[in-house]
Amino acid sequence: MPSIDRWPYPRPLVALMLRDMTRTALDTTARLTLTLSAALSLLACGSDPSTDDGAAASEDTGPESSSSDDVSDAPEPSTTAAESSSSSSSSSGADSGSDDEPTTGEPDTTDDGPTTGEPVEGHCFVLVHGAWMGAWSWERVTPLLEAAGHEVRVVELPAHGDDSAEPAATTLDGYRDAVLATMADAGEPVVLVAHSMGGMVISAAGQADPQNVEALVYVAGYLPLDGQSLLDLAFMDAGSILGEHLIDHGDGTASIETDFIGEVFCADCTDEDVTLLQDRHRPEGFAPLATPITLTDDAFGSLPRFYVHTAQDVAVSPLLQDQMVSASPVDGEATIDTAHSPMLSDPEALAAEILTFVP
């Protein structure tokens, strides 16, 4: 049977009949259904063709139909006459087929906002590197998060990577401010993900601006309590070999012995990656590592926290990782079988765990 817009019968006559009949049948949904079904049957039995555009039917019946909950809030499906006669909601959808008047109560579907059923937008991840590294260390994880539909921003901390600042002049506040600037540029709440020393930095950023942080994710990261510094936590780590290979330059900075950079940071990396770590190695300022952090329950303590453990780590040992999580419980944790730098040795596993926490 042709759709209602193509019925070759006089619309004004049908409209009057529909209006009169529905006026006497609005007391119950059942009577409305029977009345509209009868009217549609009469339409199917008409005989005179008409060139009327159907506006009269829509204008006359729209207000009357809008007095019924079942009619006014119904969607506008494209229906056949048989489907229209089967239920009152389908009939009301057919009656609103005219473009001249919008149906009362319908949601605004202009381009100003999303429509029902659209995909949920992804998160904005802000990635923070650790000591003696730079933004470059996240290059293999970034496209994996982006492929999952998320936005990714990577922070270059002062005096790291390609940043020109002097390592001896760095501060924990300066590191924090670099993250806060990236958060502000994002213009929306973000998920902060940090490796190693970066855990201190995202803790400080979460404390400073908790309303713009969705979650904190620590990857073999330092997870402090209020009043602790990174060095406080490092001195607790009996399973770390980092201190054995530390070179104090006497100017407020330190480096790792070149021949042991691979063993300390990425024992499971390829030779090419070890060379990359050595080539990109820069002295690290002591001041940010020795600065105690201030954390409160109503700011940092209010944020969801997650932890990715690294089972073969000799820089931040599994023992210290467990101790930190025990002292500052998290909302979720996972373990991957890598050394200290999974973003280099197993970026796929790391990205998968991050997306498990924040899908």
Structure description:
The protein has 359 residues and is an alpha/beta fold. It has two domains: 4-95, no CATH class; 124-357, Rossmann fold (3-Layer(aba) Sandwich). 38% of the residues lie in helices and 12% in strands. The protein is built from 16 helices and nine strands. The chain has a six-stranded parallel sheet, sandwiched between helices. It has a three-stranded antiparallel sheet with strand order 5-6-7. A hairpin with a 4-residue loop joins strand 5 and strand 6. It starts with 10 loop residues before the first helix and ends with a helix. Mean pLDDT is 78; it is low at 1-120.
At the fourth CATH level, what is the homologous superfamily of the largest domain?
A: Alpha/Beta hydrolase fold, catalytic domain
Structural class: alpha/beta
Q: In percent, how helical is the residue content?
A: 25-40%
The gyration radius over C-alpha positions equals 33 Å
Brief rundown of the structure:
The protein is of the alpha/beta class and 359 residues long.
Write the layout of secondary structure elements.
Blueprint: H1 11-23, H2 29-44, H3 55-65, H4 69-72, H5 81-84, H6 88-95, E1 124-128, H7 142-147, E2 151-155, H8 172-186, E3 190-195, H9 198-208, E4 213-219, H10 230-234, E5 246-248, E6 253-256, H11 261-265, H12 271-279, E7 284-285, H13 287-290, E8 305-310, H14 318-327, E9 332-336, H15 342-345, H16 347-357
Parallel strand pairs: 1-2, 1-3, 3-4, 4-8, 8-9
Antiparallel strand pairs: 5-6, 6-7
Helix pairs in contact: 1-2, 1-3, 8-9
